[in-house]
Amino acid sequence: MNRNIKYIGFGICVTFVLLAAFAGFALTQASRVDGGGTEFISDKEVMSEAGLHLYPSSGNDVFGLNVIDDKEAAPEEEWNKTFGGPHSEWGWSVLQTSDGGYIIVGYTSSYGVGGPDAWLIKADSFGNEEWNKTFGGSDFDVSRSIQRTSDGGYIIAGWTRSYGAGDKDVWLIKTDFFGNEQWNRTFGGSDWDESYSVQQTYDGGYIIVGDTKSYGAGNRDVWLIKTDFFGNEQWNRTFGGLYYDECRAVQQIYDDGYIISGYTSSYGAGGNDVWLIKTDSSGNEQWNKTFGGLDNDVSRSAQQTSDGGYIISGWTLSYGAGVRDVWLIKTDSSGNEQWNKTFGGSNDDRCYSVRQTFDGGYIVAGTTNSHSVGSYDGLLIKTDFLGNEEWNITFGGLDGDVCRSVLQTSDEGYIIAGYTQSYGAGKRDAWLIKVSAEEEIRISISTDKYEYHPCEMMNVTIDFENPTEKTQHCIFKWYLNLLDDHWYKIRNVSIVLPPKYNESFVIPVHVGNWSEESFNATWYVALLNEATHEVISQDTAKWRFIPGEKAQCETMQKEIAKQKECVYFQ
């Protein structure tokens, strides 16, 4: 992508003549903006008159091209790693660590004491294993969820058949930074009790969610357990009716309460319905909502969003195009549905994890049988803030491959944990996949020097870059800040940047005799997402005005004002 530099010259200029004392400036053809007050646009469109052709986003003619409403090009896989021995291993959840590496939790049949054992793997920033730890006894022991703790270690939740009171007990394991066990706790009765999600709470304790057959009203109930910092139970709550009710995700939210997601066959419209439960800080239910049709609909992940609402992911048999479709549901803060989207083809497509991304959209991980090379492929879908698909990627070979957990990394890429039967050493291996960051549009502004005197020409360069394959709809803002508190709007307009666009525009600004004293000033430019108005890219250029003799510039200023091509502020 070659940069094209356009110089705006031959009398075409942007001119400010600000006749005032250091304390303030009087503008007769425009209104001043003081920290968010009334804005203005000049009589002439400054940028377009200067030769920078920014077309409105509503038309088809964009820099001589037709606007194509295509999906963004997907980012690329950077690397993938498998972990395992001759038998079966599962990767269930992943976190980025403070050193830039990754920590994966799952379980292994190739290593450990029993079969299988809970498994913790630490990898560096390139996915190379640094160490691994197993936890368990002679029976079946599984880890499903991991979170960093305030002391730098990790908290792990799963279930165990080697320890505890019943056939299967909820299991909580605390480790230090290097994965060494500090303590573990079991919770349960005489029957089956499982855990799928854990989080450290604001008071330093832990909240665990899963399901129980030992307690509650029905065949299986949602189970919420709160512990102190050392894993000692403080309280527990069950939620459910006469039939099967299960939960897969919990999060403490802004009001100190908890949001729980799963599915219910006791309530709702169909066989299984997506179930969202809100509790207070003591686990008392405040409200619950069901989502679904006449068939089976399931949630596997949920998160509070930046607007205070919730995003829920799973799959649906009631809606969509295929046998099962990935299902994404957005609600407000009271759990009322705002929108829902399905993704999939004619076969089986499922989602296990959703996270809100830095740009306000969502990243979804799961598996697909509709768009796969083999029986199932790992699936990654990126949407905008309204759930509209921007791109998707599949990962896998000829056998069954699944993505179970995803999060956005510090470099704005993505890390995925799951398991693969197509690659690796054994029957099934834990799988870690790194995806690069998406290419983003950028704007920058600069001046040809720092200090300016009356009658000089300031060359302001504004660079627009769209390295992506997609036409970008943006809002372009250009402001001038004087005396550190007075803002003037030069340009505020919707624009369209074509794919692989890279242009530099040099706009000459005639410096007038603007003040009797020196002052600092700053140019500010920004590109905003046209839909969300969130800033995508911004930049500033600082400069300083040094006063001179007033008579020195009067003749030049009058001549400039006569030029029809110039934009003149007085």
List keywords for this structure.
570 residues, Immunoglobulin-like, mainly beta, 41 strands, 6-stranded mixed sheet, 2 helices
CATH C-level label of the domain at 4-71 and 440-569: Mainly Beta
CA radius of gyration is: 29 Å
Q: How would you name the CATH homologous superfamily of the domain at 4-71 and 440-569?
A: Immunoglobulins
How far apart the termini lie comes to 40 Å
What is the number of E strands?
41
Ordered list of secondary-structure elements with their pairings:
Blueprint: E1 4-7, E2 14-16, H1 46-49, E3 61-62, E4 65-66, E5 77-83, E6 89-96, E7 102-108, E8 117-123, E9 129-135, E10 141-148, E11 154-160, E12 169-175, E13 181-187, E14 193-200, E15 206-212, E16 221-227, E17 233-239, E18 245-252, E19 258-264, E20 273-279, E21 285-291, E22 297-304, E23 310-316, E24 325-331, E25 337-343, E26 349-356, E27 362-368, E28 377-383, E29 389-395, E30 401-408, E31 414-420, E32 429-435, E33 442-447, E34 451-452, E35 457-466, E36 472-482, E37 486-497, E38 501-511, E39 519-529, E40 535-545, H2 551-562, E41 567-569
Parallel strand pairs: 1-38, 2-38, 2-41, 34-40
Antiparallel strand pairs: 3-4, 5-32, 6-7, 7-8, 8-9, 10-11, 11-12, 12-13, 14-15, 15-16, 16-17, 18-19, 19-20, 20-21, 22-23, 23-24, 24-25, 26-27, 27-28, 28-29, 30-31, 31-32, 33-35, 35-38, 36-37, 36-39, 39-40
Protein described:
With 570 residues, the chain is an all-beta fold. It has a domain at 4-71 and 440-569: Immunoglobulins (Immunoglobulin-like). 3% of the residues lie in helices and 51% in strands. The protein is built from two helices and 41 strands. The strands form ten sheets. Strands 1, 2, 33, 35, 38 and 41 form a six-stranded mixed sheet that branches. It has a five-stranded mixed sheet with strand order 34-40-39-36-37, with no helix packed on it. Strands 5-32-31-30 form a four-stranded antiparallel sheet, with no helix packed on it. Strand 30 (401-408) and strand 31 (414-420) form a beta hairpin. The protein is elongated. Residues 6-70 and 563-570 have low confidence and may be disordered.
